[in-house]
Amino acid sequence: MQGNLYKAFMDLMPGRPLQVGEVTVVDGDVVTVELPGGGIAKARGDAAVGQQVFLRDGVIEGVAPSLPVVLVDV
């Protein structure tokens, strides 16, 4: 097999999920985000209390639109 074995292995791993939640606490550049299922996540970034944000791997990626969230159990 030619190429980088580590890269081939990492390509098999799933990517980090993009999550959405509402900012509940801001403490400097660390915010607490409440996720739709009731979970809590800490993330780094710039946001205001009450904003909906996208977060991935502990970092806020941007502001999310304020749309209704529907949870579906499978």
List keywords for this structure.
single chain; 74 residues; mainly beta; SH3 type barrels; five-stranded antiparallel beta sheet; 1 helix; 5 strands; 39% strand; extended
Concise account of the structure shown:
Helix content is 11%, strand content 39%. It is mainly β.
Q: Could you characterize the architecture of this molecule?
A:
Helices cover 11% and strands 39% of the residues. With 74 residues, the protein is mostly beta strands. The protein has a domain at 17-63: Roll (SH3 type barrels). A five-stranded antiparallel β-sheet has the order 3-2-1-4-5, with no helix packed on it. A hairpin with a 5-residue loop joins strand 2 (30-34) and strand 3 (40-44).
Instruction: Indicate the CATH class of the domain at 17-63.
Output: Mainly Beta
CATH topology of the domain at 17-63: SH3 type barrels
**End-to-end span in angstroms?**
39 Å
Poorly predicted residue ranges: none
Number of strands: 5
Mean pLDDT equals 91
Main β-sheet, spatial strand arrangement: 3-2-1-4-5
Oligomeric state of this protein? single chain
Q: Can you write the helix and strand succession as a string?
A: HEEEEE
Report strand %.
35-45%
Please outline the major beta sheet: 5 strands, antiparallel
| Apparent shape | extended
- Corresponding CATH architecture of the domain at 17-63: Roll
Helix content: 10-25%
Radius of gyration: 16 Å
Q: How many helices in DSSP terms?
A: 1
Which structural class fits the helix and strand makeup? mainly beta
